[in-house]
């Protein structure tokens, strides 16, 4: 079972989530502050990070930035409120998904499995390495390189790129991408898609404001180039 690091300052939430995940077979390590969580990260080596957005001292966004400096560890943000501004900041910082508290353990478990499937599933039966201009996508090895240099992608970024590039020139709506990449079968949050697209463009595009690979069709969605 996946090893989970939970950084949450509220004792009741922390204990409740930890107990629920342990009952489902997860090995769980907890921390009450961002600083303690970063120390536990190197020692515990989790498969996924559950990260509260509103932490005392170093907040969840700062922790997320620190993690992303050296790791593409899957991150799910926890937020006690559906505040649009805070959620967008968390997603822009590199979170793969978010959950609004309070959330049932089965919901958290489902999100954990969905995020981890993005890095466990093979890219498909097509040729393992595909070249799109300067971009090389290794579907079997789940790696991406541009002009010969490896690009580190978070799980949601990798799954999004794999899905779009599997059907060049096909337009996908935000809802379709939510269903295929994030496994949100209900009318999900399009901000997940838009934030992930922006992060992906910043990594693979020469000029993110004038994208060559991930193109926007206003009113319809996104498609993969290159032009």
List keywords for this structure.
227 residues, alpha/beta, four-stranded antiparallel beta sheet, 41% helix, globular, Response regulator transcription factor, DNA-binding, transcription, OmpR/PhoB-type_DNA-bd
What is the fold's blueprint, element by element?
Layout: E1 3-7, H1 11-23, E2 27-31, H2 34-44, E3 48-52, H3 60-68, E4 75-79, H4 84-92, E5 97-100, H5 105-120, E6 129-132, E7 135-138, E8 143-146, E9 149-151, H6 155-165, H7 174-182, H8 190-204, E10 214-217, E11 221-224
Parallel strand pairs: 1-2, 1-3, 3-4, 4-5
Antiparallel strand pairs: 6-7, 7-8, 8-9, 10-11
Helix pairs in contact: 2-3, 5-6, 6-7, 6-8, 7-8
* pLDDT averaged residue by residue: 88
Morphology: globular
Low-confidence stretches: 122-126
* Strand order in the sheet with the most strands: 2-1-3-4-5
Report the portion of residues in β strands: 15-25%
Backbone structural class: alpha/beta
DSSP summary, beta strand count: 11
Q: Major sheet, described briefly?
A: 5 strands, parallel
Number of separate helices: 8
What is the CA–CA distance across the termini?
42 Å
Radius of gyration: 17 Å
Tell me the series of helices and strands, N- to C-terminal.
EHEHEHEHEHEEEEHHHEE
The percent range for helix content is: 40-55%
Keywords: DNA-binding, Phosphoprotein, Transcription, Transcription regulation, Two-component regulatory system
Organism: Streptomyces exfoliatus (Streptomyces hydrogenans)
InterPro entries: CheY-like_superfamily, OmpR/PhoB-type_DNA-bd, Sig_transdc_resp-reg_receiver, WalR-like, WH-like_DNA-bd_sf
Protein name: Response regulator transcription factor
């Amino acid at each position: 079972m996946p090893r989970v690091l939970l950084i949450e300052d509220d004792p009741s939430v922390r204990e409740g989530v930890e107990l629920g995940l342990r009952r489902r077979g997860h090995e769980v390590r907890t921390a009450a502050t961002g600083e303690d969580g970063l120390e536990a990260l190197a020692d515990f080596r989790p498969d996924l990070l559950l990260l509260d957005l509103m932490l005392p001292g170093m907040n969840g966004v700062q922790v997320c930035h620190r993690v992303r400096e050296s790791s593409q560890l899957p991150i799910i943000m926890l937020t006690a409120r559906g505040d649009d501004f805070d959620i967008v900041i968390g997603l822009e910082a590199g979170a793969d998904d978010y959950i609004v508290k309070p959330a049932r353990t089965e919901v958290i478990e489902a999100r954990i499995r969905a995020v981890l499937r993005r890095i466990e599933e093979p890219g498909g039966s097509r040729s393992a390495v595909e070249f799109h201009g300067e971009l090389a996508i290794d579907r079997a090895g789940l790696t991406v390189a541009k002009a010969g240099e490896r690009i580190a992608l978070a799980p949601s970024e990798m799954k999004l790129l794999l899905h779009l590039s599997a059907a060049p020139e096909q337009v996908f709506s935000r809802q379709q991408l939510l269903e295929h990449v994030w496994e949100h079968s209900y009318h999900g949050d399009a901000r997940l898609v838009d934030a992930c697209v922006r992060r992906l463009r910043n990594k693979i595009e020469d000029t993110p404001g004038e994208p060559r690979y991930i193109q926007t069709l206003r009113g319809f969605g996104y498609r993969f180039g290159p032009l």
